[in-house]
Amino acid sequence: MENLEGEFAPEAEPASAGLIFGENIDRARRYFELLVRDGDLLGLLGPREMPKLWTRHILNSSVVAELISPGVTVADVGSGAGLPGIPMALSQPQAQFTLIEPMERRSDWLKSTIAELQLGNVRVLRARAEEVTEVFDVVTARAVSALPNLLKMCVPLTKHGGEVIALKGSKAADEIADSKKLQKKLGIESFEIVRVGGDFLTDPTLVVRTKLV
Hints:
By secondary structure, the protein is α/β, with parallel strands linked by helices. It has one domain (63-212): Rossmann fold (3-Layer(aba) Sandwich), CATH 3.40.50.150. It has eight helices and seven strands; from the N terminus they run αααβαβαββαβααββ. The protein has a seven-stranded mixed beta sheet with strand order 3-2-1-4-5-7-6, with helices on both faces. Helix 3 (53-62) packs across helix 4 (85-91). The N and C termini lie far apart (47 Å). InterPro entries: rRNA_ssu_MeTfrase_G, SAM-dependent_MTases_sf.
């Protein structure tokens, strides 16, 4: 990794972090430190992501917890560095999160990170999404695949009446249009583009909520 004191120095903690995480801010800070330490080494996040680690990755993920009710079960598919699952779990400690990650080194890192952060509402499942037989109230994903492929992967993990929440960018509407052909086959009731975190973030997080019949 290039010198972290130079152009890839880790981002300073934004003031909004404390407001978002509340009593879990110390855990969020430790998670940030672990990503800085291990991100490039384990291929979780490259050095170029360090100057925007808080805003583009941790806080961007955490505010999605605004859409998660207490008591629900959430699966984070292709969790990788624990995004969005770990920040969401810190923001919504009353929900139960399962991080699904097929790569051994990443799943091992997730397990050690959860243990260090003492996150009792999070577990790790080393598997491909297609191999998982459980179903969840909500399934999340970030930077995994275009929406049509993502829905084929995630809908089988989602309970009837549940929803898939995908963090997306400016092409979200186009991805929804491309997914409409799967609506009947996958039992999709509706698609909705939602922006979350507007009270805390300059650039709110855009998600596609896909609700199932």
